[in-house]
Amino acid sequence: xxxxxxxxxxxxxxxxxxxxxxxxxxxxxxxALRSGEIEVTVVSGLDGQSDGxxxxxxxxQSKVRAxxxxxxxxxVTDQQAIFRLGESDPHxxxxxxxYFVANATEEVFHPGLLGMVAVPFTLLDSYTLDGCMAFSxxxxxxxxxxxxxxxxxxxxxxxxxxxxxxxxxxxxxxxxAVLRCQASVDGLTQSVESDYQQFEGGIWFxxxxxxxxxxDGDLKYEQSVIVNSAKFNAPINPTTFSLVSLSPKSxxxxxxxxxxxxxxxxxLIDLPDESEIQKSDISRTPPRSYVRWLLIANAVFxxxxxxxxxxxxxxxxxxxx
Length: 321
Description:
Blueprint: H1 2-14, H2 18-31, E1 35-44, E2 53-60, E3 63-68, E4 73-76, E5 80-85, E6 91-96, E7 138-148, E8 151-160, E9 165-171, E10 177-185, E11 188-199, E12 203-215, E13 218-232, E14 253-256, E15 259-263, E16 268-270, H3 274-283, H4 288-319
Parallel strand pairs: 6-14
Antiparallel strand pairs: 1-2, 1-13, 2-3, 3-4, 4-5, 5-6, 7-8, 8-9, 9-10, 10-11, 11-12, 12-13, 14-15, 15-16
């Protein structure tokens, strides 16, 4: 039994090419960023004149939260996704895992993916760390020693069964940093290049990331991401990834899997039944006898008031003929 296991392990190891091993090392380095928080500014367009938009990300293992400057809050965990859209009159929604599409992260991605995939920042939510590189359907692999950005790196290139050609530049000396990756197919080339900085704790992480898309050699689209601040492997308050952290007010309606629920200040409860609401309204309605006496009293008051007005007129006419 042990012999069979060792043989299978040896076969599995032999299937890992030198280039794939470098990519797996890069993935493991990013996975080691177990928790943290980063703030980024994203600028899109060829002119580079856009003001960009700012986002902050916090994560702890598989729990990720993304906030933007417009009051939108998105939280994704293994169990559910929680959204707060808007600031002044927020719309809060919860979707349990079986209610949103498999592998979907609802526009939230693990920050460790930054600079690891040749796609725009806004499409990173379609990827995971385990699925961003180290593909086994490769052929014609080549691994060379090169220099890029003034650093020694390994240049990996290969073809995939789906028809695309991938190139990846990895610097093992700075924690297997992915300096550049590029994917090409049918005249379309997408690339992402990262400028790394050493953050607190000696962790190398992209400080600036630039995505470019070329069609037949012509630049068609460009997007830049600047990491304004970053902190890694620091404790994150667990409530950061809960409904409570979105500050719902007592009485707010929260939709969960399409069902309307009421936040009572401590937890979500069912909305009162319509019959109960009607009973409550009836209990507040004055009895008919009370209403009848109220109408009689008003009539008496009006009659007395009218008599008083007529009497005053008569007195005035007597004094001033």
